[in-house]
Amino acid sequence: MYIRRASRVYKGTTYFNYLLVESVATPKGPRQKVVCSLGDLRPRPKHEWVALAHKLQSALGGQEPLFRSANAVAATSSKKRLAVLVVDDNPIMRLGLAVIIGGQPDMIVCAQASSGDEAVQLYREHRPGVTLMDLRLPGGMSGIHALHAIRELRTHTEVRAMAHITGGGVVDNVPRVLPEGLAATVDRATWTVPPVFTAIQRAGSVHLEEMWRTFNMGVGMVVIVPPDVPTIASAAGIPVWRIGEVVPQSGTRRVILR
Predict the structure, then answer these.
(1) In sequence order, which residues have a C-beta less than 8 Å from that of residue 224 and are 6 or more positions away?
(2) What was the pLDDT predicted at 4?
(3) What's the distance, CA 67 to chain centroid?
(4) Cα 204 from chain centroid?
(5) For position 182, what pLDDT does the model report?
(6) Which whole-number Å values give the CA distances from 230 to 32, 80, 95, 193, 254, in the listed order?
(7) Phi/psi at 69 (5° precision)
(8) How many CB atoms lie within 10 A of CB 253?
(9) Distances from the Cα of 241 to the Cα of 162, 175, 184, 225, angstroms
(10) What is the pLDDT tens value at each position of the chain, 258 positions in all?
């Protein structure tokens, strides 16, 4: 089973779609069957959704060797690709990530897990270069604890944690990736807030602290790394800047804005 990208042209515009395809044995030999289309949102009877969910679970649960883009396989057969372990309890989320990663010519999903325990086991087996982890996993081992277990297996890990700054801003999103007992100090003078946020604040008479609790204020991703990594990243041409540091928590606040 694999992911294939399809395209069609309608009124001069090219539309792309991703198909989940499996090989089916027929009297005339194997043929490719489309299991589902990610662009196909038509209503389905409940039994069809149940059958589809079983197929997705089978494919995403590690029973299939991998998800891959047919185009990417042909383009990168002669060079090594970055192996990615995808961990999420929602099979549709895992499918979506597999589609995106499978479309990259230099990346491949080596395994998928639906729980923290399974993630650690698959990490031991595959030793991926990147692990994408849902921090809110059900069951005994959360995503945070699974990452701690994986870090013990990979002591040279440079990226300690990543936080996508969406609704809730830096104040609400960064604490989600911090272990208990730690906090983050953020120096707001280390970057220039985009003008759009200033305009929103003025137009709505929004208090400054409320702006920081609602918007990312120009920081879309926070990566927690050892002190020397930003220098290495800048030397490699990756635009980064240091906005603060992780410190022992004192009091109730997990993020201290300065």
Answers:
(1) 159, 160, 161, 162, 163, 177, 178, 184, 246
(2) 64
(3) 16
(4) 33
(5) 92
(6) 47, 26, 32, 20, 23
(7) -90, 130
(8) 13
(9) 15, 19, 15, 12
(10) 565 666 667 677 665 565 667 777 788 877 777 666 555 444 455 566 556 556 655 554 443 333 333 333 433 443 567 788 999 888 878 877 887 787 777 788 888 888 889 899 999 888 888 888 888 887 788 888 888 888 788 766 567 788 888 888 888 889 888 888 999 999 999 998 988 888 988 888 888 888 888 888 988 888 888 877 666 566 556 677 889 999 998 888 888 898
Helix or strand or coil: residue 9?
Answer: strand
pLDDT of residue 18: 59
Topology (CATH level 3) of domain 161-257: Phosphoribosyl-aminoimidazole Synthetase; Chain A, domain 2 (3.90.650)
Domain with CATH 3.40.50.2300 in the chain: 45-153
Q: Coil, helix or strand for 171?
A: helix
CA distance 186 to 55: 45
Q: Is the dihedral of CA 226, 228, 231, 236 positive or negative?
A: negative
List, in sequence order, the alpha helices (H) in 137-219: 143-153, 169-173, 195-204, 208-214
Could you confirm whether domain 45-153 is CATH 3.10.20.90?
A: no
Residue 93 in 3-state DSSP?
Answer: helix
What single string gives the DSSP state of each residue in 224-257? E--TTHHHHHHHTT------EEEEE--SS-SEEE
* Residue 183 in tokens: 């906090």
